Amino acid sequence: xxxxxxxxxxxxxxxxxLEALLGQGGMSHVYLAEDLKLKGKKWAVKECFSMEExxxxxxxEAEMLAQLQHPQLPQLVDYFMTEAxxxxxxxxxxxxxxLQDLFEEKGRVLPVSQIVHIAFQLCHLFHYLHSFQPRxxxxxxxKPSNVMLNEHGQVRLIDFGVARHFHHEKQSDTVQMGTLGFxxxxxxxxxxxxxxxxxxxxxxxxxxxxxxxxxxxxxxKPLELLCPDLPEVITSTVGLLLQEQPHNRCQSAMEVKMxxxxxSPNTTILTPNPAKNDVADQTAIPEKLIIIxxxxxxxxxxxxxxxxxxxxxxxxxxxxxxxxxxIEPDLYMLLYGDTQAPKGYQFSHSLVKDQQAPTSxxxxxxxxxxxxxxPDGLADTWQSADSFKLLHTIKKPIVIWDVSTHWEEASxxxxxxxxxxxxxxxxxxxGKCNRPRSRFLLEKFETYQKRGKRVHFxxxxxxxxxxxxxxxxxxPIAPLCTIPDLPRDEVRHQVWKGQFIQDQxxxxxxxxxxxxxLLTHIVPPAILHKEKAVxxxxxxxxxxxxxG
Length: 548
Fold this sequence. Notes:
Elements (H helix, E strand, L loop, with lengths): L3 H4 L3 E2 L3 E9 L3 E8 L6 E7 L6 H13 L8 E6 L5 E6 L6 H7 L6 H19 L6 E2 L8 E3 L5 E3 L6 E2 L29 H16 L5 H4 L3 H4 L5 H10 L11 H9 L5 E3 L14 E3 L1 E7 L6 H14 L4 E5 L7 H4 L2 H4 L7 H6 L10 E2 L2 E4 L12 H10 L4 E7 L5 H9 L2 E6 L3 H4 L2 H15 L3 E7 L4 H9 L7 E3 L4 H9 L8 H10 L1 H4 L5 H6 L18
Parallel strand pairs: 13-17, 13-18, 14-16, 14-17, 18-19, 19-20
Antiparallel strand pairs: 1-2, 2-3, 3-4, 4-6, 5-6, 7-10, 8-9, 11-12, 15-16
Helix pairs in contact: 4-5, 4-9, 5-8, 9-15, 14-15
């Protein structure tokens, strides 16, 4: 191995003049270099030690970095190997202190809001890496010295020396590496690391930052004991991230972000209803992702989702109802999309998959925004990352996401891990609730609850008192509320008339009373109890009659 002192002043490839040592570790040294071809340009040049068996690792890292296109990740501009077998990566030079430098400078005390802001950015970066195609990238070495901050407080990850592509077919990593104190247990156990390994390192780093520089593996104490003044959502999230078994941790970077968001939620101020020119309440509505589906087929999750959307409409709360792209299409037909979809409307699949697609026209009805899938269904695959891309395009504070019965689908499970509320619709059919699949799903919902997720059971339709009591006792959780029995003939009649039965004033009142326990989990009390609901306007659905 060549000493770094001998390389200072060296000119590599006749172009890169090494001026100073920026950092060093067990696997590499990083130098500041001046570009003699592009006068005044500075680069960070990473020297990978001269070991013939590491040649493959070096080329893998170079090819991986070359594929990354993210403003907060290092941009590789060149790489080469010398005749002596030394490899060099030339990357953009990031000015600014590392997080470790800042932490030490501030006496190992950083504001909670600043640490959470850093965590948010790291979640976005991990989401980008973990959803990278064709294979996810696992960073594996998150620590304060590998995080840099620019003058605007923007986070940038550096040093991909131990990052690896995730291979589903492999049982273990080729090399087990990481930094003691931050690395996940599986990095030293000969098993393959995955996205949850990066999440462990995030938890370990947050523990370190919040506790003034202590390591969780040494203290063996929950963060709340060391820092009793920290908000519960922070200590519980860190506790989940540091679970020894990967399946007990948060399962995705977006789940971590959604959990921490409740500490410092992004809020949206309500805007006036353009159709009525009225003035909306200016109370801020916290962002919420609500997943709603049925325990078994035919229960009516779409009806329940529409009911919830229209109740929020009467409260003047902007919301969006999303039909999950993998389920059987239904919403577009209910909305008579062929005649009622706005000009320029783009289906969700096109918005996510076609990077050149123009911005879609919103399909709105008062305060409700509809996001149906194409009536022919999904012709392509749908990944978890696609769901979050779609979620990012929806600028509404409350998003209701209808997953029908597809609870086991991977992208749905990812959404559930990130959801603020999970609503399970079921009816009083004891036999259906006792089916093997139903029991399996009920156990899954219990695991979500144990992880701190709010799961609400909503019954669709009343039952006689005696039968109802027996049915409720057979469930792990009693239904939070019951959607009242609405005559099916009347529901169909209203649809054929081109109207939502949920927009009928007497039905709105009945639904408001029945679903009040659920609304208290979604709507701030200031609005729910003080805001006068707008009079339901005549649905644009009624225009359907004019079209024949």
